[in-house]
Amino acid sequence: MIKKILIDQKENVYYWSSGDLHTSLGKIKESDILQGGKIKSHLNKEFIIFDAAFSDQIEKSERGPAVILKKDIGNIVATTGISKDSRIVDVGTGGGMLALHLANISPHVTSYEKSEEFCRIAVKNAEKVNAKIIIKNKDAMEGIEEKNLDLVTIDLKEPWMLLKEMYNVLKSGGFCVAYLPHTQQVQRFCSEARENKFYVQKVSETMEREWIFEEQKSRPKNIGILHTGFLVFLRKY
After folding, report:
1. CA distance linking residue 97 with residue 99, whole number of Å
2. From the CA atom positions of the chain, what is the Rg in Å?
3. Is the model's pLDDT at 61 over the cut of 90?
């Protein structure tokens, strides 16, 4: 588990767990790292140190298939308003990035993944952050066991195949959120959702562009995080 984050004067980030840290800007002793704050390496280069957070642990998790990004996860969390009492099912775990963020809010998260390889990666990542989550190596198309759910998230090529199942397991007003890369998928999903007693609350894409603020100047970073996928938010009625 990552315990400390170190950032050097060039803004390079280091993830520390134990032992002395060797960098191109010099060696830092373990005892100095544990003190935190501002310290200097044996080459007199300055570093800042602080405790690692959940987001830092996730950043260094093992990757499997393409992952949903934090900008989209934030949209899901804010729009659905989940809490510590929310009952959630995540379909298509992949490496577990979305499921682990959801589990960091609610201890009632179950995730379905039919691939044994991806399931192994997700379980390993969950163990690293001590996540309270149930990961099932099972195809959700065969049925979802959990009922009276507040939220179901889906990251599958054909999420419309699960609409009837979603209707059965969600509570009234519950959310179904699908992550889809292509407009054709969105069009079909929305069309079939309306036929299955779902209200299409919104379809959105989230874009992010960081800015750099330095002495006497500011500018946007050259490359932003633009289109990665669409989020389709459904409500059961």
Report:
1. 6
2. 21
3. no
**Structure confidence at residue 64 as a pLDDT band (50, 70, 90):** confident
What pLDDT, on the 0 to 100 scale, is given for residue 175? 98
Instruction: Report strand pairing: 217-220 vs 211-214.
Output: antiparallel
pLDDT at 181 over 80: yes
Q: How many CB atoms lie within 10 A of CB 191?
A: 11
In this prediction, residue 118 carries a pLDDT of 96
Residue ranges and CATH numbers for the domains of the chain are 4-52 (3.10.330.20), 62-236 (3.40.50.150)
